Amino acid sequence: MLTPPEFRLINGRELDAVPARLFKARSSAHARVLAHSDWLIRGKRDGTYLGAACAHSMRFFRRTSNDRQRLEDVAELLAGSLRSGQFRPIVDAEAVLRQLDIDPGHYAEAHQLPLMAEPYVLEYAGKDRYQRPLWLEYNAKGAWLRMQSAGKRDNVHLQAISGYRSHLYQLGIFRRKMARGQSVADILNVNAAPGFSEHHSGRALDISACGEPAAEVSFELTGAYAWLRRFAADFGFRLSYPQDNPHGISFEPWHWYHAGND
Predict the structure, then answer these.
(1) What is the mean predicted confidence (pLDDT) over 117-135?
(2) Which of 255, 45, 11 is nearest to 135 (CA)?
(3) Residue 172: is it exposed, middle or buried by C-beta count within 10 angstroms (0-12/13-18/19+)?
(4) Are residues 139 and 43 part of one domain?
(5) Are residues 168 and 63 in the same domain?
(6) Would you say residue 1 has pLDDT above 90?
(7) Are 216 and 239 members of one domain?
(8) What ranges in 154-196 are assigned the alpha helix state H?
(9) 127 vs 5, 94, 159, 230, 262, CA distance in Å?
């Protein structure tokens, strides 16, 4: 079984692989398989549990007539673990945008935002406020843990609300809202187009503090926000969406991006 220092999220185009021991089984059958596996294989669009893998075997939770192709897809996915530090092609994001008839060039110009590539491998950075695994790009993980520790020394207890989110996860938000009758134009008023969220990069964090609500403008009035404004840059983080930002995005005092040396 994988140990915590080996925990990664291996990020494919349609699938991902996460450490089996970090996730709860959804049935007794799943539990027996996951207990003896290294990796849980999921569909990225909706998080569906597809199967589990270890060093020498692969077990699907539901058999199909296409299992040979699925085995090849999983083998290709797990080989992506060798590409740590690299990012998937931007064409992945463009393909998602075409499903919504959004022109990436027009959107990028209108909002002054770049398309964001996803890492092939994301690092485990502990749990977020909701006890979900927090996945970050390698350098962002180290910077976040150092910043969190520095805050504690100043009696500022920073909490991660969310980190990495995939293009397909963002597309799923649009699909669910469209199924309820909303138009793409209406959804774009409150949600960034898939491919343009900084969370795709694994370098963005939504941050709050103990006892504070998540993702609320009231965070601006807290000591934790004042501490971040003073010290976050020392760890390579910047506030992405301040007041009157040029991207047309409302003020988000909780959203911080690890720019590093960019």
Answers:
(1) 97
(2) 11
(3) middle
(4) no
(5) no
(6) no
(7) yes
(8) 167-179, 184-188
(9) 14, 31, 9, 25, 27
